[in-house]
Structure formats: structure tokens, C-alpha cells
Amino acid sequence: MGILTSDNPRPSADSGSVDEEPDYRYTLANERTYLAWIRTAMALLAAGVAAHQLLALPSGALQMTITMVCFGLATVLASGAYLRWRAAQSAIRRNLPLPGSVLVPALALGLGILTLLAAGAALWS
């Protein structure tokens, strides 16, 4: 069984390709991926709140930097997750290859920065 199972293709409004109703399993898998990115964004948001409320660092600037990096990364992941979900869903409907994503490198870079900031905080106190 292929990805596309509909007998009634619909012309796409934004391109000359044809939209077809995909197998529901692919749509559900795409939604699960979206929800996993949203959970990661929510965890970073909670980490930012915890850093703001619970860290007792001599430097308030370092504490605020850690907090804002968590909030910024949560914002990037939440908005990027939606954009990736929408692009993947569109590709699935058009039977095209799935698009690439910058979310994994963004998360790796952001967590690397947070690790350096946390190491600096540990050395500072």
C-alpha cells in the first residue's frame, strides 16, 4: 500500500501539483513528531522559569542570560515545529520527499550554549 490512498485527487491552490488524501498513519506520525517538538519546547520553557526562580548566582546577568536562552530556544522550537509539521504534511499530500529541518541543529546549538552557560555558572559560584 502506498502513501496516497485517495481516488479523488484535489488540485492544490498554490501550485500545479495534485493534493491527495494520505494514508492516515502518515498524518498521525507527522502529528506525533510535532507533539514531541512541542514537549521539548515546553521543557525548555519550564527550565527557563526554574532558572529564573531557583538559581542563586552571584551574577544576576548570568542568571538572566540562562533564562533568556531557554525562553528563546523554546520559542524557536515551538514555532519551528509548526512550520515543519505544515511543510511535511504538504509534502505527504503531494507525494513529495519530506523537507529538511533546521530544528535539530538549532536544538543542538542552543543546548550547547546552555551547557557552556551552566558550566560558567558552576565555576562562578
TrEMBL record:
The chain crosses the membrane at residues 34-55, 61-83, 103-124. Keywords: Membrane, Transmembrane, Transmembrane helix. InterPro entries: DUF202. Residues 26-90 form the DUF202 domain. Its main location: membrane. It is found in: Endomembrane system. It is a multi-pass membrane protein. Coiled coil: none annotated. It holds the Pfam family DUF202. The keyword Transit peptide does not apply. Residues 1-20 are annotated as: Disordered. This is DUF202 domain-containing protein.
